[in-house]
């Protein structure tokens, strides 16, 4: 399996682990933590970072909350999972893996009147990170399902091989028009969408340049997830003043190292033994 997920990741720009990877109790607690944050309850005593959605906003709209681990202990425990770190190290060969930003994503079922804005437009994460990290930085995202993700619940869709297209067009996370016409597809490539369907506790990993987006949730249940953004030892922050997305990188609670070790925000000091194929 190790060789298979490594091959899939490098060939497609992502890999999907449909079966649970994380402990069910940890996932269940993080799901409860999500509900607490959405209700404005913070068991750490600290709210999340300013976000596109805040308690009191439209419950039928897509909920995206920044740095939820700042507000909830159970979510903080989940993002520190060594299982996520080992998987990221397996597919990248990294000596160190660190969480550097997290987003809570709650997609409610489509409202009866059809007005809910819950789509996520096609985009490359790198389009939003290029001022935060040096261009050659190795960055990826672990998207963890806190609920079952089915074909009807608005699963994330990956465009296979698009990580190799470089800047295909950037895209817009908040666009409600899932339109691919603005993207440049190489002549020898094709646009092939793969849905990230998985059980609660499953996850996907995708490269910083892989195009992805999602449609409406037409099921009867909310789609609940965490996007855990990761960096390896082959990365370097570009924000020397520490005011941007890397401003918490030296805070072990907010940005835990989940595989290996480091001296500072740029260099590795020690690593756990290599993972064999």
Care to give the gist of this entry?
With about 280 residues, the protein is an alpha+beta fold. The protein has helices spanning about 1-10, 25-40, 75-80, 80-90, 125-130; strands at about 15, 65, 95-105, 120-125, 140-145, 155-160, 195, 205, 210-215, 225-230, 255-260.
Brief descriptors of the model:
alpha+beta; disordered C terminus; 17% helix; 277 residues; 21% strand; Jelly Rolls; seven-stranded antiparallel beta sheet
Q: What shape does the CA trace take?
A: globular
Q: pLDDT below 50 for ≥5 consecutive residues: which ranges?
A: 263-277
Share of helix, binned: 10-25%
What oligomeric arrangement do these chains adopt? single chain
CATH architecture label: Sandwich
Task: Classify the beta-strand content into a percent band.
Answer: 15-25%
Order of helices and strands: HEHEHHEEHEEEEEEE
Radius of gyration: 18 Å
Distance between the ends: 8 Å
Number of helical segments?
Answer: 5
Structural class: alpha+beta
At the first level of CATH, the class is Mainly Beta
In terms of topology, how is this protein built?
Elements: H1 2-12, E1 14-17, H2 24-38, E2 63-66, H3 73-79, H4 82-92, E3 97-107, E4 120-123, H5 126-129, E5 139-145, E6 156-159, E7 193-195, E8 203-207, E9 212-214, E10 223-232, E11 257-259
Antiparallel strand pairs: 1-8, 2-3, 3-10, 3-11, 4-9, 5-8, 5-10, 6-7, 6-9
Helix pairs in contact: 1-4, 2-3
């Amino acid at each position: 399996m190790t060789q298979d997920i490594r091959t899939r990741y490098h060939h497609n720009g992502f890999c999907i682990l449909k079966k649970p990877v994380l402990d069910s109790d940890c996932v269940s607690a993080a799901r409860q933590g999500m509900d607490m944050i959405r209700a404005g309850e913070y068991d750490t005593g600290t709210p999340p970072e300013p976000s596109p959605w805040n308690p009191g906003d439209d419950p039928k709209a897509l909920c995206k909350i920044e740095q939820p681990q700042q507000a909830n202990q159970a979510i903080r425990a989940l993002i520190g999972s060594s299982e996520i770190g080992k998987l990221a190290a397996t597919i990248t060969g990294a000596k160190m893996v660190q969480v550097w930003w997290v987003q809570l994503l709650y997609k409610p079922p489509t409202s009866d009147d059809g007005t809910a804005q819950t789509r996520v437009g096609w985009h490359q994460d790198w389009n939003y990170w290029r001022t935060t990290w040096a261009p050659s930085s190795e960055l990826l995202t672990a998207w963890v399902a806190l609920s079952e993700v089915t074909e009807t619940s608005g699963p994330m869709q990956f465009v296979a091989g698009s990580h190799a297209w470089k800047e295909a067009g950037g895209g817009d996370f908040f666009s409600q028009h899932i339109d691919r016409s603005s993207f440049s597809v190489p002549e020898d490539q094709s646009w092939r969408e793969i849905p990230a369907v998985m059980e609660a506790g499953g996850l996907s990993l995708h490269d910083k340049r892989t195009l992805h987006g999602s449609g409406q949730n037409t099921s009867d249940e909310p789609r609940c997830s965490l996007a855990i953004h990761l960096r390896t030892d082959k990365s370097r922050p570009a924000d020397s003043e520490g005011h941007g997305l890397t401003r918490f990188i030296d805070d072990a609670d907010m940005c835990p190292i989940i595989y290996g070790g480091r001296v500072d925000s740029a260099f590795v000091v020690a690593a756990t033994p290599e993972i064999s194929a």
